[in-house]
Design goal:
The chain is of the alpha/beta class. The protein has a single domain, classed as Alanine racemase (TIM Barrel, Alpha-Beta Barrel), CATH 3.20.20.10. It has nine helices and seven strands. A seven-stranded parallel sheet has the order 1-2-3-4-5-6-7. Strand 6, helix 8 and strand 7 form a beta-alpha-beta unit. The radius of gyration is 17 Å and the shape is globular.
Length: 201
């Protein structure tokens, strides 16, 4: 996770072996020009942040993946005839595991209902990205991660494991727990860069 980190610091991490970077804001990523690193390094630039409909097209054209995808952007993607104009090739459906009203993403029951209904845009999904309440204790997080993990495996069984293959759960403070519950992609920022500055670069 490279939100608020300067390009020199990001390049330092890449030189140390990082191959995936995640940005939360389109404008910040463009201002830092993180996309230039792809010219000299084999790096995937992932979008991990709240989505606004007026920015869908730009995000799809400059990011390699969208890890916080929801129904709106996936429905729009499902209707795109010429995929050649889009750079984004992988989409993780955001799961609001703690069912927090102030956060984006769909709840586990909502996703199960959509899967049962055979919702067409689910075929665009490459996996799941789970968000849990910051204040949740580790035992509560374990329960939430397990529910998302079961959902992930059910979707992979229904839609094909070659299609649904990424389960992004866990951050710097609980990634070991997330891995125990099946995560194969963790989102680490503080663990690499240290405490994050409140100011955007």
């Amino acid at each position: 996770m490279t939100k608020t980190q300067s390009l020199p610091r990001i390049l330092e991490a890449i030189d140390a072996g990082v191959t995936e970077i995640g940005e939360n804001y389109l404008q910040e990523a463009m201002r830092k020009d993180v996309f230039t690193v792809r010219e000299s390094h084999r790096v995937t630039v992932r979008y991990i942040g709240r989505l606004q409909s007026n920015k869908y097209n730009a995000i799809l054209r400059v990011f390699d993946t969208v890890d916080s995808a929801g129904p709106d952007i996936l429905e729009r993607l499902n209707g795109v005839q010429d995929r050649g104009v889009l750079r984004a090739r992988a989409f993780l459906l955001e799961v609001n595991a703690g069912e927090e009203t102030q956060k984006g993403g769909l709840t586990v029951p909502q996703i199960r209902e959509l899967a049962a209904a055979g919702t067409p845009w689910l075929l665009e999904v490459s996996g799941l990205m789970a968000v849990v309440p910051v204040q949740a204790t580790l035992p509560v997080r374990a329960v939430l991660y397990e529910s998302v993990s079961v959902l992930f495996h059910d979707l992979a069984s229904d839609l094909g494991s070659s299609r649904v293959r990424l389960l992004s759960m866990g951050t710097s403070d609980d990634f070991e727990l997330a891995i125990e519950h099946g995560s194969n992609m963790i989102r680490v920022g503080t663990g690499i860069f240290g405490p994050r500055s409140p100011f955007r670069v």
